[in-house]
Specification:
single chain, 410 residues, alpha/beta, TIM Barrel, seven-stranded parallel β-sheet, six-stranded mixed β-sheet, 11 helices, 17 strands, 24% strand, globular
């Protein structure tokens, strides 16, 4: 295994501190030193076993490996998922959280054939529906297959048994509350939420909730969430969003004060510029975590990858150190894995991302095809388990044009 010295970059530790011009030394797959002028300090060493490759990171951003808290990478099952590599190392992301693509009936195959074979670390949230996510948008097939179309699909005992059996990678629960996924029956949505909360409590595990175009009122949902539970699709443009009136915003603030976390979950239908600008700039309601909800229907726009999603928050005015924190330490903490991932620390396995900030602004679209100019973060290299990999930045030749699909509930 090669040794590396990453020199001259602006290093963000992931904990919210401003970037520092320091070097990072990697030996035997672990971070052994972080500090200034490490190259000069090591020039007098005669031990050839300490030989290291110098990586010039001048003008680049050095962070802990990026974590995407909301992805769909159960490739080969249903119509949602992409290959892990399409959302992972090539994009600067070293750790992926798949959020509910698999249910209790399908999870074992996900772990055996996808998670264990991937170059990235993949963790998962179990869909409370035993089916998991099988279908894409309702308009992609003649018949919509919603995972809560039958209340019986939301089976807490099956979910509890599955999570307890696969604790290493299966770290929580997921429920999608959208009326069209529940046969437009509020009772089905309520059954899904109740079962997910029951399973989360029994497993002492976090619950991520997708809530958009739902018949369950936002205030009622938020009141039932526990500290550490995650509300995703924070800036969606549907009428039941958190920024449509003072009462909704008050419910959001109250939930945050109790420890509920708020995640971006950009998706194909869940990030609108007019909503995020109001939420962030007027209401001061910034996300705890920034994630893509990347899947087959947005991989080629308007999401592309996590660094592009991060770039949109530069336009909104979020400090770079906080953007990095949202995709490193905060994401790891939401997964209860901050002891392993999310910050650059001496002694940890080398899990590192190099990014370049391109100052020339490019127009980046939201899910409604509105665009805003933003400087773009581009991934260049990653280290995973001590090995270095080159990234392949997304080609955004014409970012205002992307794959056609009706943005319904994602």
């Amino acid at each position: 295994m090669k040794n590396y010295l990453i020199c001259g970059g602006t290093v963000f530790d992931g904990l919210g501190a401003a970037g520092r011009r320091v070097d990072v030394r990697v030996r035997d797959g672990h971070i052994t030193e972080i500090g200034p002028n490490l190259r000069a300090a090591g020039q007098g060493r005669a031990d050839e076993s300490l030989a290291e490759e110098i990586v010039d990171a001048s003008g680049l951003i050095v962070t802990s490996g990026l974590i995407d808290l909301h992805t769909h990478v159960f490739a080969g099952v249903g119509r949602w998922s992409i290959e892990p590599g399409q959302a992972g190392l090539r994009t600067g992301v070293t750790t992926l959280l798949d959020t509910g693509t698999a249910g209790a009936l399908t999870y074992e195959g996900f772990e055996r054939y996808v998670i264990k074979e991937a170059g990235e670390d993949i963790f998962a949230l179990l869909n409370i529906s035993m089916l998991g996510c099988l279908q894409g948008y309702p308009n992609t097939l003649p018949h919509s297959i919603g995972e809560l179309a039958d209340a019986g699909y939301a089976h807490a005992p099956s979910a509890i048994a599955c999570v307890q059996q696969h604790k290493e990678r299966l770290i929580g629960l997921k429920v999608r509350l959208t009326s069209s996924l529940a046969a437009h029956n509020r009772e089905n949505e309520e059954a899904g939420l109740s079962a997910a909360l029951e399973a989360g409590a029994a497993c002492d595990a976090p619950l991520m909730v997708h809530h958009a175009a739902s018949r369950v009122p936002l205030s009622e949902l938020l009141a039932r969430l526990r500290p550490g539970d995650i509300y995703t699709h924070l800036y969606h443009p549907h009428p039941d969003g958190g920024f449509v009136n003072a009462a909704s915003l008050a419910a959001m603030r109250e939930a945050r004060s109790r420890g509920v976390l708020f995640d971006v979950g950009h998706g194909k239908g869940a990030f609108a510029w007019h909503v995020s600008e109001k939420a962030c700039r007027e209401c001061g309601f910034w996300p705890d975590t920034i994630s893509t909800d990347v899947h087959a229907f947005n991989l080629h726009g308007p999401v592309w990858d996590l660094p592009t999603t991060m770039s949109k928050f530069l336009h909104l005015g979020m400090p770079l150190a906080e953007i990095v924190r949202a995709v490193t330490y905060n994401a790891a903490r939401a997964m209860r894995l901050e002891h392993r991932f999310g910050s650059l620390q001496v002694g940890r396995e080398a899990d590192i991302t190099l990014l370049r900030l391109e100052e020339t602004a490019v127009p980046l679209p939201d899910v409604l095809e509105a665009t805003r100019p933003a400087p773009r973060l581009v991934p260049l290299q990653v280290w995973k388990r001590g090995e270095r990999f080159n990234c392949t930045p997304a080609a955004i030749a014409n970012p205002a044009v992307f794959e056609e699909a009706t943005p319904q509930h994602r």
